[in-house]
Amino acid sequence: MNMTLLPEMATFVVVVECGSFSAAARKLGSTPSSVSRSVSRLEQALGVKLLYRTTRKLRLSDTGNEVYRSAAGMVESARQVLSLSGGAQHEPQGRVTLSVPKAIGHVVIHPLIPAFLARYPEIDICLRMEDRYMDLIDDGIDLALRITRSPSPGLYGKPLMAVEHIICATPQWLAEHGVPQHPHELRHHSCIGLGETPADARWKFRHQGKTIVVDTRGRYAANHTGVRLDAVKRHLGIGSLPRFTAREALARGEIVQVLPEWEFISSYTGDLWLLWASGRHMPGKMRALIDYLSEQLTGP
Questions:
Q1: Does an H or E element contain 129, and which?
Q2: SS3 label, residue 246
Q3: In this predicted structure, what is the pLDDT of residue 90?
Q4: Whole-model pTM?
Q5: 98: CB partners within 8 A, 6+ apart
């Protein structure tokens, strides 16, 4: 093994984690040109292309992804050795970028962050709220929360909570328009859905192994769960909502669940998985956030 490449490997890890040569240089107290030369020396020594440089961002090659995982493990091992010898702080530190769907991020995750920051004063959090797919390596993501039945192969992770979708209305709406006893009766109600595509108006239900699809209609649609909740509370119809969004209004009796014996099937149902790319030598900052979110969301 060429031990002289260890500094280049460590620099490469910092570049990937920071997302740019300039950001890596600031963290290392160096210059972008020096950092770039260090990565180039590593590429020349290995005989492979590790990074594709564009005007907007850096992208790892397939080989670069593998080298990063191994090199990141090496760097973390070095940190652990320093920690044992008293040469490094025991307190987890650094920045963690967490990708999360918008509704989950706003309603579930954001309220938990202040207590985490108070518990770990040396850790910074960057919350990336996107409903589109975010690649952990290419998009510079440390941890990702995704609603899925089966996580992508090659990722590590754990399920935190079930995400259920339900339909709700106010007692006033139901008193004036009737309480549906079967999904087909929703055709006689104004339904508040996502409204992004025509398929969003086709509501699917399952009960005792039987699946029913109902073509709903309504005068109002919104692709934001908070807005749909408010529309339901304003007696505009029967709305589809994640249960975590509706929970407080349900507990207060402001709204009630409609057709509770029927499972509402949508792309926003499944398990909320916390995912990461590397299974070994995890940085303390990531382990701290994983443990905290597990503690808060998994429950007893």
A1: strand 123-129
A2: helix
A3: 65
A4: 0.66
A5: 109, 125, 126, 127, 128, 141, 142, 143, 144, 145, 289
